[in-house]
Amino acid sequence: MIGRFAPSTTGEAHPGTLLSALLVWLDARAQRGRALLRLEDLDPARTRAAWSEQMIEALAWLGLDWDAVTIQSGERGAHEAALDQLADAGRLYPCACSRAARTRPAPDGGFAYDNTCRDRPLPDWRASSEPLRVKLPADRIELVDDNGVDLSQTPALDMGDPIVRRRDGAIAYQLAVVVDDARAGVTDVVRGRDIAPSTATQILLQRLLGYPTPRYRHHFLFLEDGRKLAKLHGSAPLSELRTHLSAEQLCGKLAHAANLGDGAPTTPRALLPTFSWPRVRRDDVVWAGTL
Questions:
Q1: Phi, psi torsion values for 79, nearest 5 degrees
Q2: What angle do CA 143, 147, 152 make, to 5 degrees?
């Protein structure tokens, strides 16, 4: 069993980040598997090397250790090889559409792409300055994850063909996550429920690239003002939490929110003997209510 925690390095760690890291770590260690840390830093406008360093330090402070640490930007060669494979299969095409052209609601809360540019030719993807999309097959994905979340979709219709390389040349999330999980041999993906609508699209990309599909589990989220805690919003940054909480106290609060403890100070390793997924809560929780 190989699990992974793959945070974006776009800001400070916050309780939602640490909750996901803790659950990934507990899942892997409880199964005597490997726990990998992958720092996702492909967005040139939002990521900073300092945030990668801060993330590594924050996770160690909480008491989490990893069998390997990788930086996603170091995998550019593998990402480009996947683009070559998709281009050779006739699956890549350039897209000239703006976001404003999308009006049909999608399962992720955004808007679906209507595959408008599918017939545009792409002689050489490296020479194109436009965003690149993958022409998905019309397959229906029927899947319920290990937490009972129904992930079933027809991605080409429900979400539309995904962007795999952005206009600025950055590799897009949907392709990078699929390639990186396959290269690392990831067998079990544990991540927040907000990512669940992307799963069916990622499964189709796995199939196009000849990759195996891991098991998926999507856990509950911490909410703030009705929305998910996020680095983008500066939600409860760890630097602020550390002014009044020790690592053991914060771990205890995370465990209590997940229904894995009574709120008393603890450590990740102390939670291992009694950890099981049936104990973990399913519904989202407001973070302020756990302080």
A1: -65, -40
A2: 20
Query: Tokens 């989490």 identify what position?
Result: 64
CA distances from 163 to 50, 92, 174, 252 (A): 28, 10, 8, 40
Q: Which residue, chain included where needed, has tokens 């009006």?
A: 103
Distance in angstroms (rounded) separating the CA atoms of residues 108 and 208: 22
**CB neighbours (10 Å) of residue 95?**
19
State the pLDDT at residue 287: 81
pLDDT digits (tens, 9 = 90+) for 198-253: 999 999 999 999 999 999 999 999 987 656 655 444 467 888 899 999 999 999 99
pLDDT tens across 134-154, in order? Answer: 999 999 999 999 999 999 999
Amino acid at 261: G
User: Of 58, 7, 23, 14, which Cα lies nearest the Cα of 228?
Assistant: 14
**pLDDT over 90 percentage in the chain:** 81
Domain layout of the chain by residue ranges: 2-76+176-290, 93-174
User: How far, in Å, CA of 275 to CA of 152, rounded?
Assistant: 28
Q: Which fold would CATH assign to domain 2-76+176-290?
A: Rossmann fold (3.40.50)
| Predicted model pTM | 0.93
The token pair that represents 204 in the structure block: 């189709």
Kind of pairing between the strands at 285-286 and 222-224: parallel
In angstroms, the CA 273 to CA 275 distance is: 6
| DSSP-derived secondary structure for 114-173 | --TTTT---S-GGG--S-EEE----PPB--B-TTS-B--B-HHHHT-SPEEE-TTSPBPH
pLDDT in tens, 156-183: 999 999 999 999 999 999 999 999 999 9
